[in-house]
Specification:
The structure is a homotetramer of 370-residue chains. Chain A has 370 residues and is α+β, with helices and mostly antiparallel strands. Chain A has 8 helices and 18 strands. In chain A, helix 1 packs across helix 8 and helix 3 crosses helix 8. Chains in contact: A-B, A-C, A-D, B-C, B-D, C-D. Strand 11 of chain A pairs antiparallel with strand 11 of chain B, so a sheet runs across the interface.
């Protein structure tokens, strides 16, 4: 349903880049979940442009909780968080000229010219601040029942890092570091180099993220149509820069044989596990107890200051466009906490649907066999 | 919502592989849409195992329309179609032994042992017959308003065919041929060779499909959360064999620069088009008037007769398993009409949400600017 | 969403009065719920025309369970039940002449003439057989966790019975009797007399039902918008004959004062109860632990054989109509098990949303404070 | 889905009585609908306590539109409106003592004591300000396509006004008057007298409202489960004071005969109409072109300053309570614009589902037969 996602736990986004505020309503959370504004602030900080590689637009994310939190805990009623917009420079944008690979033209077709086009309006990455604020409540709540989520940069341009290996440790490492990569290797430098080179060339660069979810019991997801893959992909494809998603081996399954990539089951310490995790923790749409693993393809930021061919859709004329505003040459770093947050929304919703709204309060995740 | 998908036009699946019947309820279709049982039959035929490369299980798909069709037209009320199961051989399956990469174990965890395990039960590919029957009504209805859908085998093992090029012609070609490849080239032979080799080795093989949707006006889809990519991926990931999806360049965006992969807009004959279609017809989650293009990664059929390591989850013991039943060494051919059908469900639903339930009756697709 | 109702537990209806079959898909039920075909048969029997006061149309309700039940238990996947239509006499109906107070004309406006008009089509009371079949699974499942539901005739024409008093005993009495009244008094005779008089006058007669739900813990329902009253009324107003619903005192609140009708709380045996139940067990949309009580206004069956003024909506001419088919002079008896069943659907769905899908398996209803 | 209502056009409420703000998110509205802040202000004014008969709590409703409106028109993206809370006196409330007929105890059971209890929290009538703000956009939008809505006081205590007669004129009369009654008769005085008498007795009084919707084409609504009655009742029962709803004759059908209350169809000026409107404009759940008519039973305000028996649910002790805060002795006047607004939400949503999201922009309501 449009700007609302989730069934038991539902998140509604609102706001435009250059309007008074962006925000989020989170509904369906159990009462009694701790809400720590410092954690929300930290989660927003991870998304915020801050380092040398991001857009010069700086925002404080001075969020307000309007409802649903009382004495530091969720009340069980909808939580509305607003984040005022500041530091907007609307004059950078000229309506009618479609920025290639941006939503300007498709938005015009959908909204008939009534869209708030300033700064990308409702399509701006700015809107993801609401998702990340929601993540600032949901991610710690999941951690309390033993579920952890982490996203890192797997590739950026031609720079390539390692994949998740020891997933729990890797996620713990990610939590402690601002830059979302798995090791203190020179991969960070290579990523920054790729991005800075793109910037110097007035260009932008894409990448691939990898996300893991640990600690989920087997048995979560539906065969038709709400498979775990369906729900995660539904949520993740909300993000404008995501153009592909694969679980486990994903596209590498294509040239594989069953004998090579089927995940053998074994009983270890009385528990059923897989020796490999080529299926990314999901069989037949349902978690199998292994970590969920998925990769997202992120396209290069469409806004580049090189001259590009385009059209003015108001006048139906061909034009050239050179985008002069403040832009990220890559969103691969900033999208990581956003993917964490939308994944947390999906997991919380599916847990609540399966085990009831109080599932987050139970101290431990219910075992499927209880 | 579990086994129902879609909002304005909703499809509910039911059935188990070895129960009395599988089937589908299609709700929300406008009254007055022609229903041609021959077309449904043909669509089912495309999914059916029939050629040398498929499972020896043969089924007539002797479907019955129980409701919602009167005098050859939809009535506007729910259409229930049942497809009786025949030719089932339940003795091939032994409960408790998890077939690797299958849903046996995750289903056991979800359903506590009450699942109808025979023949994969509700997880069986057999259930997709309901989707394809729905496609047999929806695909012709879309064609009447100028929207066409086609899916072909892009890769199978190491055999690789060409991508969509002239999309409309390519789709027309696919309609006329039983084997879903784009040309009368020797690619078909290579695909069959890959599959037969896998069979001879008691193994299975994966692949990649590509799907196109032509004729959609720009402006369809939502920025959050029901982007066109979100809805298509949600639907497609219901299919057990799908482990990845990408739109346009997809994962190839990762190493691309904005200057290389942004799609330049041009006005041609007074109409806004893109010179390239790297975004697969979707900007910011919303169609831009270019054909929608996406690729799906299909994993090798999990069932292979080679011996595999596994467990008996009833006894918590390690076991070896060699799957002796009748199985497809690859589902890449049979999944193509299924992807066509789920794509049709998504497109019909999004059109109906946007333009009202009667959109399919209007002769032409409404222009977004009307 | 149209012909589907419920979120965690969803029921989809299909079928037309004179088509091959009517039926229901029940999705979201936990695995392991016993399914007793005799109980389904008994529930259908309560709805079936059988006594002297009903329509002469006789139907065996020879239902089939196509899916979702295995070895006598729910599997957790969708249950499809079909009920073939028999003994149809289509010639009684003439298309174009609107039966007053029936849906003929409004259906024509909605379905543009494509509707299956025979026997009322999808508007026929026949469709409620699917609801009652669902009730045959859900009602016993609720009883296992201590929740009981009962509906009786409170008024029929000018005959008036007593209201629920000792609710648990009253429901137990209703279970044991075919005719849904609270006592072995002469009220049954009065009801039958009212109905037979109407029949003799070629007329029909309305009535009021009263329903109680016992055994629900306090805390079920939502303040906005899914209050317990909202959900029950939503479900009950699906039934064509229902034109009003009130909870507790309902319309009698209008002339009351707060001091007279507020329900005083008291602690009895350590448990919070109300001394009166004027609010029908619901405060602020949420159950308070007292029995839910509601009354439904049932209009007289529209089909009467007296001559009535009407129109032929195909020719836009005024006509007179005298309806000669087989019809109930009152549906007040037959609607009672239907209201029980839709109430059970609502309660099961709200329990599953609140406590998880396995709530029905827990032996006892979870206490809200657990 | 809890605090969100509607499918194509969805309204999400948030806020607590004594939190920073209450508010609403309205999603799914077409772009290009005029938004007049004066009209929103006027609609809020109708709900506000202002006359001698209401609570002394005075609030300015100084609302802010945070998103979704640009240059005076809807953008097509979610509209968030916040209304700051002012003039709160939290000290009037003591947690643990259940006010009889209020939600205090049921909320405690649902929210385990984490609820923001101050001023009724999320259960406060204050939350309806968000609904009325939404109405301030939706009602004028409906008027532009010829659909008008009006609600008046039919009964208050023993004072009884007349019902709708010439519906269009009556609605026009209501628009022009602040006090929601149908005539400049002495009925207003009787209502005020009833309310003032209740106040003097430290008591409260109930009533009945009547609502009409004019200008809807026939064919709107669903047979199962989303009948027009279902959707309106679902929305209206969100309002805490509503304990009953009936359409047309409603509970008066009970003692009626079909020959007396069936609505005869006639062709007048080439148009099909009913001679009477006992069914309240709805047949089989679908509009028949006559005005929709329904009555709501409103219970007396639970808060009275007379001493009442109750419990402290924290200590499980019996207590006496005398509620000393500022309260309306009757909400019958203030609930009228709220019912108008929730009815507008339902109608807009059902129109958008049927005719597409742009239906509000078409100048005239689409005729069902187009």
């Amino acid at each position: 349903m449009k700007n609302t996602f989730g069934q038991s736990i539902a998140v509604t986004l609102f706001g435009e880049s250059h309007g008074p505020a962006v925000g989020v309503v989170i509904d369906g959370l159990a009462p009694g979940i701790p809400v720590d504004i410092n954690v929300i602030e930290q989660n927003l900080l991870r998304r915020r442009p801050s380092s040398v590689i991001d857009t010069p637009r700086r925002e404080k994310d001075d969020f307000k909780i309007l409802s649903g939190v009382f004495n530091g805990f969720t009340t069980g009623t909808p939580i509305c968080i607003t984040i005022p917009n500041e530091n907007t420079k609307s004059s950078d944008y000229h309506y009618g000229v479609a920025r290639p690979s941006h939503a300007d033209y498709s938005a015009f077709c959908k909204y008939h010219g009534y869209e708030d086009y300033r700064g990308g309006g409702h399509f701006s990455g700015r809107i993801t601040a609401g998702l990340v604020a929601a993540g600032g409540i949901l991610i710690p709540a999941l951690e309390k029942i033993g579920v952890t989520i982490g996203t890192h940069i797997l590739k950026c341009g031609i720079a390539e890092g390692r994949a998740f290996n020891n997933v729990e440790e890797d996620i713990a490492f990610l939590k402690k570091n601002e830059f979302p990569i798995l090791d203190n290797s020179d991969f960070a430098k290579k990523v920054i180099s790729q991005i800075n080179t793109a910037r110097e060339q007035n260009d932008s660069i894409g990448g691939i993220t990898q996300t893991a979810v640990c600690g989920l019991a087997p048995g979560l997801g539906e065969p038709w149509f709400d498979s775990m893959e369906s729900m995660i992909s539904h949520a993740v494809f909300s993000l404008g820069g995501v153009k592909g998603i694969e679980f486990g081996l994903g596209f590498s399954f294509a040239a594989s044989k069953g004998s090579e990539c089927n995940d053998p089951f074994r009983v270890i310490d009385g528990k059923v596990v897989c020796e490999t995790n080529n299926n990314g923790g999901i069989n037949g749409g349902i978690t199998n107890g292994m970590p969920i693993l998925f990769q997202c393809a992120i396209k290069p930021t469409p806004s580049i200051s090189q001259e590009q061919k385009s059209v003015n859709f108001c006048t139906s004329e061909n034009v050239d466009i050179s985008i002069s505003g403040r832009h990220d040459p890559a969103i691969i770093r900033r999208i990581c906490p956003v993917i964490d947050s939308v994944t947390a929304i999906v997991i919380c919703d599916m847990l609540a649907q399966r085990y009831g709204t109080d599932v987050m309060l139970k101290g431990v995740l219910p075992c499927n066999m209880d």
